[in-house]
Design goal:
heterodimer, A: alpha+beta, D-Maltodextrin-Binding Protein, domain 2, Dipeptide-binding Protein, domain 3, 3 domains, 7-stranded mixed sheet, 19 helices, 29 strands, 23% strand, disordered N terminus, B: mainly alpha, MetI-like fold, 2 domains, 72% helix, globular
Chain lengths: 622, 356
């Protein structure tokens, strides 16, 4: 009897059961005591069903299965060709079925706190402000119908709209306005300090009249039209949330998808909606402006971060609105699919900030040389597919007091002049330096901008080490970090900027909370102090020119009181900014929305975030 | 080999699993805290005041020394509380993760099944025809499938089957963003596919199944390659054994030799691969697939959201939802550990000497 017996090892050294073939019995016994093969007689029994029969049976089963599935699939494709134009019953009094609007959102959010939300794309459809700004800068009534002011623009009286109801059915009145504004100020989060920084007091002077007292001349209708931190909500939220005098506890109530605004839509979502990747809004039947045929009674924000997926879904008719997050290479494809591309101006811009406290970069001639060597058109065309506009000065195009004739660098590079400037600065042979340039990967196209700068500055002897990172890391590296508490987004000491840990150059995608032309230059280029000490917040060029800061603050005061004087002051600031060159606005961004051909009525408005959509404006067109 | 030894071995492995999970918690906890981020930013809204941050930081014990935070967290975990998610509207982490797990597990299970059904026969055939064209083809295929990025493959499959051919939906469960509005599915297990079947909703089941074809194919390609590679090498080792030669010498049919003798002996490492494939496909593998095919709820969506993709209008992002990240790491760790344990048990089933 021949016996073969050994332990087999796989290529990973794992033991496998060894088997022994008992030749005479034709039986294979394995180490796990299993019998792997049966006696010959039994084997013969199994052969009663031939292989051909098995194959035929399997093929028949497969054909039946495939046919069945095909039947189902074909049936489904015809019956379930669902698109965004699905219908839901209306509760708004509009006759007939009305469509649901599906909007792509690139990230989930539960930040539904109207006092400080960053998710105004959603929240601005749920809450309203006292006034609104049209795209051309004109202020129009909202919850307020009219307003007057005293001679020095410090006292404002607003007359409120009657007949407006909050979502719980209670009436809107002056009590709600006073409550909302005071609560926003007390909460102090979000952009409340920027929006209400000048507020001394707000009082109800009647059921439908409110008086605002400001510490300095203020163009208050601009403030009350702000996209951020100016929403009005019902005082009943205290009752519903069960919190009194605890603004933080109220915040957690809001982020659990509660609301009591007066806007055209109510939040009809729960926390579990987030898990499913969406937020849902329903039309508020008693909305004071009323409802008309074709208006969307249901809005769904779908979290789709992958732009390619969003593009495909839009092409398949499942998404009505998508943003492209800078990936404008999809535009031709979308247009050829019959979708509409709407391009509007926005107040967002790409800023380049030099670390003015680092060696070489502390010399304004060096900074000017660098800015002179940039090909601004290449930056816009290559990094942003041409959907932007180079501009000069400290104010974004389209904002009040923007000066189209402000001194500016470029748009074409001038290497000869740049080298001359370096020579004047004492570097006739170029710089021969290696610098770190940082950007937030939240705006990936900034990486392309950095690469272009790398090329543009090479002739000047500059080598750029490009570092993309999260915004938190960017802020920490830039010094918006409290070293004592170890907390990012807390003011840090200005002295940190001199250290080698701080970046040399930073790219920033930035938009101000309000359209106030003072805001962005104040955030990025003015001196910031806490308890008398200069600190780092978002002033990441560390530019500490007190004259610049003082004139800027004066211009803010004069915006309302003496616009001509303010214009002169902003002009002076633009010149100072050009001469000192602590940074530059590389280009102002356009906002691009892709809309379903069924969506009508969208008007881009840069005063509201990134031209965020007021759904109430839209109409469904079959 | 007696049952006592097997029991002791499995208990030992189970205890090791606990150690692995604690190790996972420890490493993830400290690694996630290395990144400069304050999760209360997620909770406090945009541009919170220093007072708000300080209060929340204190309320959630984030101002304690790191080792104290770690011990507090461990105590929480062992009492079944994985904390709350700052980015998911203050929901408790454990239910949040468990609710999203069934859909991801379904994707993972289907991908693993496909990998087994396709990978093992191809691996056996490849081993049987070593050095021939078919074997070379399989080797190229297995290496390529392991090397191909899943997100890229997903996009290509979408392009071919959804855009060009139009025979499969390109994204979302049921093939439509609003599918469940029209076809609600009663929750039984939490998996859309299984629940639609269990509730007898066959039209919905087929629609969901259809929408899962491309994601499962995308997810399965890597495990298929792995399975072919593993099966090929294991079966090749088995085929070189004397008992196989003897079996052939006695005229046992080649098919019987390959599948009944060689494959069975080669199974243990393949089982390990299959178990780990299931764990991988259900947890890490689904991240890109759920992203590309817009499948939510799922672990991929949760993980993406916990790692700072919340973007404000000013582009502020990067705050990490520590508790959710840790919760996911623990669940994934446990998943892997259980998969390993099951693989161990199956290996013992096939070869009890392993437990010695």
């Amino acid at each position: 009897m021949f016996i073969a017996n050994r332990v087999a090892l796989s290529d990973h050294g794992t033991k496998v059961p060894a088997c022994t073939v008992k030749a005479l019995s034709r039986q294979v016994l394995c180490s796990d005591n299993s019998v792997q093969n049966k006696r010959e007689g039994k084997m013969k029994t199994r052969k009663a069903v031939s292989r051909t029969q098995v194959v035929v049976t399997v093929v028949v089963i497969l054909i039946l299965l495939v046919s069945g599935l095909y039947y189902y699939f074909v049936t489904l494709s015809t019956t379930q060709n669902t698109t965004s134009a699905q219908t839901t019953p209306t509760s708004t009094g509009v006759s007939g079925p009305v469509p649901t609007l599906v909007i792509q959102r690139n990230a989930p959010t539960s930040d539904m706190d109207p006092r400080s939300t960053s998710s105004i794309d959603v929240v601005q459809n749920v809450y309203e402000t006292l006034t609104y700004i049209l795209p051309n800068g004109t202020v129009i009534p909202g919850l307020a119908t009219s307003w007057t002011h005293n001679s020095d623009y410090t006292e404002w009286q607003y007359t409120l709209r009657q007949g407006v109801k909050f979502h719980d059915g209670t009436p809107f009145n002056s009590t709600a306005v006073v409550f909302s504004v005071k609560n926003i100020v007390k909460w102090g989060g979000g952009d409340a300090p920027d929006v209400w920084g000048n507020l001394i007091d707000v009082k109800a002077t009647g059921p439908y009249t409110v008086n605002f007292t400001m510490s300095s001349p203020t163009n208050l209708p601009f403030v009350t039209s702000s996209a951020y931190s100016a929403f009005i909500f019902s005082p009943n939220i205290l009752k519903y949330s069960g919190v009194e005098n605890d603004t933080l506890a109220l915040h957690t109530w809001f982020v659990s998808f509660h609301d009591d605004g007066s806007g055209p839509y109510t939040i009809n979502s729960t926390a579990s909606s987030l898990e499913k990747g969406q937020i849902e809004l329903d039309a508020f039947p008693s909305y004071w402006r009323g409802w008309n045929p074709g208006q969307y009674t249901r809005v769904i924000y779908k979290f789709i971060s992958n732009v390619n997926t969003a593009v495909q879904l839009a092409q398949a008719g499942q998404l009505d609105v998508i943003g492209l997050s800078g990936q404008f290479q999809y535009v031709p494809q979308l247009l050829s699919s019959g979708l509409k591309v709407r391009i509007g101006p926005s107040f967002a811009a790409i800023w380049l900030l030099f670390n003015t406290l680092h060696q070489y970069l502390n010399n304004s001639l060096v900074r000017k040389a660098l800015l002179t060597a940039i090909d601004y058109n290449q930056v816009v065309n290559q990094a942003y597919f041409g959907y932007g506009h180079p501009f000069g000065g400290i104010i974004n195009p389209g904002k009040p007091f923007y000066d189209a004739n402000a001194p500016r660098y470029g748009p074409a590079p001038n290497i000869t002049l740049a080298k001359q400037l370096l020579k004047q600065a004492g570097y006739p042979g170029g710089l021969n330096v290696t610098w770190t340039i940082t950007y937030s990967t939240g705006s990936p196209f900034l990486g392309t901008v950095a690469q272009i700068l790398q090329t543009n500055w090479k002739p000047l002897g500059v080598t750029l080490n490009i570092q993309g990172m999260s915004f938190g890391q960017l802020a920490k590296k830039a010094g918006y970090f409290n070293p004592q508490t170890g907390t990012t987004f807390q003011p840090g000491p200005l002295s940190y900027a001199k250290s080698s840990q701080a970046q040399d150059i930073l790219l920033l995608n930035w938009v101000g909370a309000t359209a106030d032309p003072w805001l962005v230059p104040n955030e990025l280029f003015a001196i910031q102090t806490v308890n008398g000490q200069q600190v780092i917040i978002y002033n990441w060029s560390y530019y500490t020119n007190s004259t610049f800061t003082n004139i800027l603050n004066q211009a803010r005061v004069d915006e309302a009181l003496n616009p001509a004087k303010a214009a002169a002051e902003f002009k002076q600031l633009n010149q100072m900014f050009y001469d000192a060159a602590p940074g530059v606005g590389l280009f102002a961004e356009d906002q691009v929305w892709v809309l379903s051909p069924h969506v009508q009525g969208y008007v881009p408005n840069p005063f509201y975030g990134f031209d965020y959509i007021f759904v109430y404006q839209l109409r469904y067109s079959p | 080999m007696n049952d006592l030894n097997v029991g002791a071995y499995l208990v030992k492995r189970a205890l090791l699993t606990v150690v692995v999970v604690i190790g996972t918690i420890t490493i993830t906890f400290f690694l996630s805290h290395v990144v400069p981020s304050n999760p209360v930013i997620l909770l406090a809204g945009q541009n919170p005041t220093p007072e708000q941050i300080a209060r929340l930081t204190h309320e959630y014990g984030l101002d304690e020394p790191l080792y104290v935070q770690f011990l507090i967290y461990l105590r929480q975990v062992f009492s079944g509380n994985l904390g709350i998610s700052f980015s998911f509207s203050l929901q408790p982490v454990l239910p949040l993760v468990l609710q999203t797990l069934p859909n991801s597990m379904t994707l993972g299970a289907l991908a693993t099944l496909l990998a087994i059904v396709v990978g093992i026969p191809l691996g056996v055939e490849s081993a049987r025809r070593t050095g021939r064209k078919f074997d070379s083809l399989m080797r190229i295929f297995s290496v390529s499938s392991v090397a191909l990025p899943q997100f890229w493959l997903g996009l290509i499959l979408q392009l071919i089957f959804a855009v060009y051919l139009g025979i499969l939906p390109n994204a979302s469960y049921g093939g439509s963003l609003l599918f469940f509005d029209m076809h609600p599915v009663k929750t039984v297990t939490g998996s859309y596919l299984i629940d639609s079947l269990l509730t007898g909703n066959f039209v919905t089941f087929v629609a969901i199944a259809k929408s899962m074809v491309l994601p499962v194919l995308t997810l399965a390609l890597y495990p298929i390659g792995l399975m072919i590679k593993q099966t090929r090498s294991s079966v090749m080792a088995a085929l070189s054994q004397d008992y196989i030669r003897t079996a052939r010498a006695y005229g046992i049919k080649e098919r019987e030799v390959n599948y009944r003798f060689a494959l069975k002996n080669a199974l243990p490492p393949i089982i390990v691969t299959a178990a780990l494939t299931f764990a991988y496909s259900s947890t890490l593998g689904v991240i890109y697939v759920e992203e590309v095919f817009n499948l939510a709820p799922g672990l991929g969506f949760l993980l993406r959201s916990s790692t700072g993709t919340g973007i404000s209008s000013t582009g502020i992002s990067g705050a990490l939802d520590y508790q959710l990240i840790l919760g996911l790491a623990i669940v994934v760790g446990i998943f892997y550990a259980i998969a390993n344990l099951v693989a161990d048990a199956l290996q013992i089933y096939f070869d009890r000497r392993i437990a010695r």
